[in-house]
């Protein structure tokens, strides 16, 4: 059986996060002390007024409660990302535009003052950042050329050294061994991807590629493969040829506004204004222009992102509708919120579908916000967005509102006290099977 001998606490923690918290984090998951204090005060007030409940603590209910909170957090982050970073005004985010998305894609990550000119840049991409490629020997896949036995080898990276051990059986073939090692390395999640390539003549090669691109600071490569100091039989690395570096990592090379530059990654930020992702190479003498979309197009982009975030939340909540009846309460509350602002939404081309999601008529939207009464229409959609932001806050604060529970007793009016009952119940769902 193949296994990894070296495992750090960091690996265990990352596995826990990717298994139980698959949603990605964002800058909007960080908070000021004042914001945390406000959240704490809301929790205290909510716990003080909350009755005592019995709640179903099955794994299905736990997953449901956690998902409600995570989905509400995701919706809140989408809405927060659509505000201007300087004024914090909702739906006022600027969006970048590239003259050639196949060469360079861009996003605007800066802020603009009221009278400042829109930033722009020209970039000529001459070379993309590339990873390290190790290409193994091409071996006949249907026969076994390695003596059966226990083998091991090391992969050394800048962060950690890993030892892999595996067994070659009499029934194995060269192709079986290569496939087994590719799966083993991929599952180890050490920043190296294994793949199998065939030459069309029945021969196979094991390829190893680093997840990192660009030239390392102190070495020529991101990883070394060796079996010189391992605990079992040696010779496997030479047999497979996976220590052969076929392509050394390289930095991206470009000319930015007339000045030469380089980057170890194909994604980087320029002057805290644009985040660029290099995808292709310009023809010699040509460049790609990056700028800011016009206000109408940026507003349309904001609304489009808002609708995608809202629809994703509704679809995830609807997935629990049959097994968790209280999710219908959540869907009903979101529906009523939309109907409260229905006229304002319709005035800019938004409509409510039968399944509770929103749709947008982009042409009608852009036409409506270009008319003389655009400020009034923008106020309506921004009020809806602000209410949606508050609602996502409320759901995230207490997802237990939408879980089936049995009321045990109300607290004595006027003589109740603060307790962490509801908060501890939710937190316990995340850790009761972990501790």
**Mean of the pLDDT scores?**
84
- Rg from alpha-carbon coordinates: 28 Å
Strand numbers in spatial order across the main sheet? 3-18-5-14-15
Q: Please tally the β strands and state the result.
A: 21
Query: Count of DSSP helices?
Result: 11
Assign an overall shape: globular
Helix coverage percent: 25-40%
Strand percent estimate: 15-25%
Describe the sheet with the most strands. Answer: 5 strands, antiparallel
CA distance, first residue to last residue: 29 Å
Structural class, from secondary structure content? alpha+beta
In terms of quaternary structure, the protein is single chain
Q: Could you name the ranges where pLDDT drops below 50 across 5 or more consecutive residues? A: 1-9, 12-22
Short descriptors:
alpha+beta; 5-stranded antiparallel sheet; 11 helices; globular; 21 strands; 435 residues
Structure described in brief:
The protein is α+β, with helices and mostly antiparallel strands. Helices cover 36% and strands 24% of the residues. The chain is built from 11 helices and 21 strands.
Q: Could you describe the 3D structure shown?
A:
This protein is an alpha+beta fold and 435 residues long. The chain is 36% helix and 24% strand. The chain is built from 11 helices and 21 strands. The protein has helices spanning 9-20, 33-49, 59-80, 174-188, 236-240, 295-318, 326-340, 342-346, 362-368, 374-397, 421-431; strands at residues 3-4, 52-55, 96-98, 104-108, 121-127, 131-135, 139-140, 149-157, 161-168, 192-198, 203-213, 223-226, 245-247, 252-256, 259-263, 267-270, 274-278, 288-292, 350-352, 358-360, 405-409. The strands form 6 sheets. It has a 5-stranded antiparallel beta sheet with strand order 3-18-5-14-15, with no helix packed on it. Strands 6, 7, 10, 11 and 13 form a 5-stranded antiparallel beta sheet that branches. A 4-stranded antiparallel beta sheet has the order 1-9-8-12, with helices on one face. Helix 3 packs antiparallel against helix 10 (374-397). The radius of gyration is 28 Å and the shape is globular. Mean pLDDT is 84; it is low at 1-9 and 12-22.
């Amino acid at each position: 059986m193949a296994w990894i001998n070296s495992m750090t606490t960091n690996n265990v923690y990352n596995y826990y996060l990717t298994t139980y918290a698959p949603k990605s984090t964002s800058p909007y998951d960080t908070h000021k002390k004042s914001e945390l204090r406000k959240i704490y005060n809301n929790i205290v007030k909510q716990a003080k007024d909350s009755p005592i409940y019995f709640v179903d603590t099955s794994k299905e209910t736990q997953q449901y409660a956690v998902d409600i909170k995570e989905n509400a957090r995701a919706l809140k982050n989408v809405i927060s990302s659509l505000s201007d970073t300087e004024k914090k005004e909702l739906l006022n985010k600027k969006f970048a535009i590239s003259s050639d998305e196949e060469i360079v894609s861009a996003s605007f990550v800066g802020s603009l003052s009221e009278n400042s000119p829109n930033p722009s840049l020209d970039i000529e991409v001459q070379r993309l950042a590339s990873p390290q490629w190790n290409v193994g020997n091409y071996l006949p896949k249907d026969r076994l050329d390695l003596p059966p036995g226990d083998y091991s080898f090391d992969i050394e990276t800048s962060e950690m050294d890993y030892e892999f051990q595996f067994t070659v059986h009499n029934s194995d073939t060269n192709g079986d061994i290569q496939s087994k090692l590719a799966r083993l390395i991929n599952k180890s999640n050490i920043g190296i991807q294994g793949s199998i390539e065939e030459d069309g003549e029945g021969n196979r090669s094991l390829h190893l590629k680093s997840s990192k691109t660009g030239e390392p600071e102190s070495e020529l490569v991101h990883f070394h493969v060796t079996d010189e100091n391992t605990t079992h039989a040696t010779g496997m690395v030479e047999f497979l040829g996976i220590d052969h570096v076929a392509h050394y990592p390289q930095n991206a090379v470009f000319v930015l506004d007339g000045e030469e530059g380089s980057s170890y990654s194909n994604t980087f930020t320029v002057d805290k204004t644009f985040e660029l992702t290099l995808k292709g190479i310009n023809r010699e003498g040509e460049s790609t222009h990056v700028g800011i979309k016009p206000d109408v197009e940026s507003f349309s982009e904001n609304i489009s992102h808002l609708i995608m975030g809202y629809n994703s939340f509704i679809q995830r909540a609807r997935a629990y509708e049959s097994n968790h009846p209280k999710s219908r309460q959540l869907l009903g509350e979101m529906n009523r919120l939309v109907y409260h602002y229905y006229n304002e939404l319709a005035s800019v081309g938004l409509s409510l579908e039968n399944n509770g999601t929103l749709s947008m008529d982009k042409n009608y939207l852009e036409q409506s916000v270009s008319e003389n009464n655009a400020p009034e229409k923008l106020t309506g959609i921004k009020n809806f967005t602000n209410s949606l932001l508050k609602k996502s806050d409320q759901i995230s604060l207490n997802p237990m509102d939408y879980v089936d529970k049995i009321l045990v007793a109300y607290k004595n009016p006027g003589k109740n006290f603060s307790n962490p009952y509801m908060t501890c119940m939710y937190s316990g769902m995340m850790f009761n099977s972990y501790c």
